[in-house]
Amino acid sequence: QYQLTMAQLYFRLGLHELEVQFDHFYRRNPDYDQHQAGYCINAGLEWFLDWMLKAHFREQELEYLRNHRNNLGNRIFADDFLDYLRKHGDFSALSIHAIPEGRVVHPNTPLTVVRGPMAMAQIIETPLLNKLNYQTLVATKASRLVEASRGGVILEFGLRRAQGEGANDGTRAALIGGAHFSSNVGVSHVLGLPPKGTHAHSMV
């Protein structure tokens, strides 16, 4: 919610249309027990952009926000701000410059640069981090497994253990990171790969 309350404050101060730039980066490579990775593999960009091009505030969502209350029972979001979101609440005014997926990236280097009106550039931060951070983490792990296998075949079997639709993000990221195949039939089909798997314990 705080992205929206921040955007409303910018709106109230007349700063919501101010052109800004936000850089998305990470501060340190992942830790694997006693060893720290020396790089990450960028992932998640395509699915983030697919979401961004379709996303906008619909009437039912604005009505939901209209009913938000603080601890004193007062409305959190004012009508004029909600009207602004109704008219300008998509992300078409933003420009995105990013490192392509599958590239090696390093700490404190911008992976994604967002430019545009401050309010909408602020609101998009959470979806951007949600889509890119997790997939980058999984792609990095997959890349390190491929490297450690020294030519072995790496299969991704995470579908049953993953969290809901995040399973598809994980599968896609693992394949971007270099995993050769996945047991996830749906994502394998979308990406043009044959699914690979073994069998469940119940078959033994």
Summarize the structure in words.
The N and C termini lie far apart (48 Å). The chain has a single domain, classed as nicotinate phosphoribosyltransferase, CATH 3.20.140.10. It is 43% helix and 14% strand. The radius of gyration is 20 Å and the shape is elongated. The strands form 4 sheets. The chain has a 3-stranded antiparallel beta sheet with strand order 1-7-5. A two-stranded antiparallel sheet has the order 2-3. The model has no long low-confidence stretch (mean pLDDT 93). It is of the alpha+beta class and 204 residues long. Helix 3 runs antiparallel to helix 4 and helix 6 packs across helix 7.
What CATH architecture label applies?
A: Alpha-Beta Barrel
| Largest sheet: number of strands, sense, barrel closure | 3 strands, antiparallel
Spatial order of the strands forming the largest sheet: 1-7-5
Average predicted confidence as pLDDT: 93
Helix-strand category: alpha+beta
The radius of gyration computed from the alpha-carbon positions, rounded to a whole number of angstroms, is 20 Å
Would you report the number of β strands? 9
The rounded distance between the terminal residues' Cα atoms is: 48 Å
Estimate the global geometry from the Cα principal axes: elongated
Family: Belongs to the NAPRTase family.
Enzyme class: ligase
Domain Nicotinate phosphoribosyltransferase N-terminal: 2-133
Keywords: Glycosyltransferase, Ligase, Phosphoprotein, Pyridine nucleotide biosynthesis, Transferase
